Amino acid sequence: MKDQAISVRNLSVSYYGKEVLKNINYTCSHGKLVGIIGPNGAGKSTMMKAALGLIPRDSGQINIGGRPLKEMRKKIAYVPQRSNIDWDFPIIVKDTVLLGTYPKLGLFHRPKKEDKKWAMECLAKVGMEQFANSQIGELSGGQQQRVFLARSLAQNAEYFFLDEPFVGIDVSSEEVIIRILKGLRDEGKTVFVVHHDLMKVQSYFDDLILINKELIGAGPVDHVFKPELMQAAYKAPINMLGSLGVGV
Fold this sequence. Notes:
Blueprint: E1 4-15, E2 18-29, E3 33-37, H1 44-51, E4 59-64, E5 67-68, E6 76-79, H2 93-98, H3 102-105, H4 113-125, H5 141-154, E7 159-163, H6 171-186, E8 190-194, H7 201-204, E9 207-212, E10 214-220, H8 221-224, H9 227-234
Parallel strand pairs: 3-8, 3-9, 6-7, 7-8
Antiparallel strand pairs: 1-2, 1-4, 4-5, 9-10
Helix pairs in contact: 4-5, 5-6
């Protein structure tokens, strides 16, 4: 349906014959900031990558904006985990951000003056314009994450998928990033974030997708971030959930 930002049906994924995601089903409406949470090894990143067609899936039907995934790729921006990026690749910051304009340029078209101007505007939005000519590998973790967020902004996407964007970054970078993500949400964009810090779930997200290889819960934060569901996902005694940031 067009009013659904994303619809995932019967998503299952296996690695080397071992099932790591089983029959995941969820839908999300437009204009939401959605956290994907669950314990280590729960399949959070796998679910995001499988939903985007970046890894094979055993089964599953994915629709974005009511249309098949393959028809919507130019409207999707994906920011991978920092650990999956080759930071030694010789590229400067402004050229990294400019790559975000390439999906809409088409084959054999090079960025024009206005594309380069737009890339610099996106860099300014994340507070990194003064590093435009720096090598990407010279930056701190938080600065690198800001640059990749700027690259996703340069795509002019409608749907944003970020895999663990707050891991290993400084507090000021995290504040900049969450402010921008909330701003995208307020503009009507839909943002999905694989997230690990449960203490910030209630202040960061509108909706949650809670998994541990299977779907435990999905929907508004106050419907999902509940002791019984968190206990089912994290297998933690209910008296320990307070240390995870869950009210008990």
